Amino acid sequence: MSNMIEQAKQKADALLQSAYRAAVEKGALPGEVAFTGSVDIPKDTKNGDYAANHAMVSAKPMKKSPRQIAEALAAELDLSGTWFDRAEIAGPGFINFYLSQKWYSDVLAEVEAAGKDYGRVDVGHGERVMVEFVSANPTGPMTIGNARGGVLGDTLASVLDRAGYDVYREFYVNDAGNQVDLFGKSIEARYLQLLQGESAVEFPDNGYHGDDIKTLAQLIYERDGDKWLNVTSEARCKEFVAFGLPYNIARMKEDLARYRVEFDRWFLESSLHESGYVAQTVDLLTKAGLTYEKDGALWLRNTELGADKDEVMRRSNGFYTYYAVDIAYHRNKFVDRHFDRVIDVWGADHHGHAIRFGNTMKAPALGLEGRNLDFLIMQMVRLVRGDEVVKVSKRTGKALTLADLMDEIGVDACRFFFNAKPDTHLEFDLDLAVREDSENPVYYVQYAHARICSLVQALAEEGVPVPQFADIDASLLSGEQEIDLIKQISALPEEIRYAARDYDPSRLNRYVIELAARFHRFYNACRIKGEAADIQKARLKLADATRQVIAICLDIIGVSAPEKM
User: Fold this and answer.
1) Which of 23, 373, 512, 538 satisfies CB 3.0 to 4.6 Å to 476 for a cystine?
2) Which residues, at least 6 apart from 26, have a Cβ–Cβ distance to it below 8 Å?
3) 508-547: per-residue pLDDT in tens?
4) CA distance 366 to 363
5) What is the rounded average pLDDT of the residues 168-196?
6) Are 508 and 557 in contact (CB under 8 A)?
7) Residue 397 has pLDDT above 70, yes or no
8) DSSP sequence for 422-442
9) pTM over 0.70
10) Which strands make up the sheet holding 388-389, listed edge to edge?
11) CA dihedral defined by 288, 294, 299, 303, rounded to 10 degrees?
């Protein structure tokens, strides 16, 4: 788990610290000063591979100009045996470091040594993290919003795993409450319509009108005939919910498995009610003086916790609200299952709720001190085909579902395109997603992988296998395109670190697109087949390292890495 970029920064800082101590000993700089600064990658590579600002930071406490300090430091820098060729003073006092060929060679050695684990970093230190995502109501098919949340949640979980966290994926099943009651009544109405005619049975005004409800009613009718005609509505709806929910959940699991999303647990809301956990959680808040009664309902004093409004916890009819259940569910995650951090992936329409809920969960009565509840809020998706906004499936003429989308453009395109920056609106171009050219980013990246696989196979057939690092002269990889490609390969651990820090898995998309672009430039500029043996071996090793890193990135995103296209 080596981060070559971070290590280079640390080595540059260590060299400056050593130079400072040497300058103090010679009286060139004052001692007993906190000598600090940062080492960063400059935007323009003309300013070196790394730039240190220690001289500027130290100017005030040392009472010297940054340039004087930089000159004193530069005079004591000993770069022999390090990853740096030279260091130069620039501008008001930056010290710019230039990498040596040894660093580039060591990157390739690290890729080979790490294998499939290349890019792993340990910033999580085993912290237990739950990512809860999708969590769609089991009253209908998976939607396009669920599709985006599924990819972002799953890819974020993979990123966190690569960053050293102990990651758990969970789907919260809303199998209780008003939406489930309405689900049962909707199936009941369609069932009775099958027996008595549509005109004879009124459909609930706020019922679920989808064809999936008709399908469930038809399945019940085919199984039981008119068995449920002469029983009470309550008994009928209870039976229909008992049939319909497991049926829909099974369909969800099938769709998500096809979408390459697997959960560690499908957590049932009903289990919180049956165990008395919701009532127990509300009682904790009541005993802490955080609730009050009004109009027969029990309210949470959420404004006292920093929210902009109070929330109903228990309605006047005695039923607990979704808000109360959600508090109990999150308390269960932290207190009973001991997660250190919970990340909820929610849609943009939940933004205000997330702020209020975050305040609620800080209530001391819940006992969550030291635990972290975070939210990944994703923006809306608009599907387009040409100039047309797409809302229905070509095949069915009905609202477009996740299954329809996978049928139309495939799983790879779905996952790659939906793994876009979460906090921006996504315009998903369906025509672009199926194009087989460089304009389609997923095709572009997969083509780079397949191109390398074809190259490796062709050379192997000529008796030239991919060499071990120890058998190449990596110093031959000194051309502009070769250096640029190795630099991009080296950046994967940093991308993993930042993606985990920012909850932004889309960084992997941008990274691997740039990696593919740099490979194509390298391949077009640097001949491999037919080149001199030592150069051929070195470049083949670089190409295969690129293949390895592309495959790792695509695996994190959940996209296949084809060997032929």
Assistant:
1) 538
2) 76
3) 999 999 999 999 999 999 999 999 999 999 999 999 999 9
4) 6
5) 95
6) yes
7) no
8) TTS-EEEEHHHHT--STTSHH
9) yes
10) 388-389, 381-385, 426-429
11) -90
